[in-house]
Amino acid sequence: MPLGKPAHTSPAPNRPPLISAAHRQLAGLAVRLGARRMEIDHNPTGLVVRNPQAAGCCPENRVLSDTIVCRPFERDGNHLWFFTAANDPIIEADRLDDAAIRIAARLTPRSAATQPERRARR
User: pTM to 2 decimals?
Assistant: First the structure.
């Protein structure tokens, strides 16, 4: 007996995606930053990333943090990119692992003990 398509089925309705491509990229980034022990909060303006191990600048910002947004970058043909709260481009949004590394590095202060010594020029 041949298998056929049931007569009463109809194609799936043309529905918009539940979340935008930018929000999907931010969600993927959140997972990777969480694995790096960053605290993550999603809000309407972007992804708030905090490093609970790094002291902030003032009482209002007790730990180092940044708000990451994902939006088209005009200078790159409107491909999605991640940006800092200061509107500095970080990296293309499809490079999630590299983005997590860069963001975590920005939120991890370098102490004098971990920096290589600079030799005086003679």
Answer: 0.74
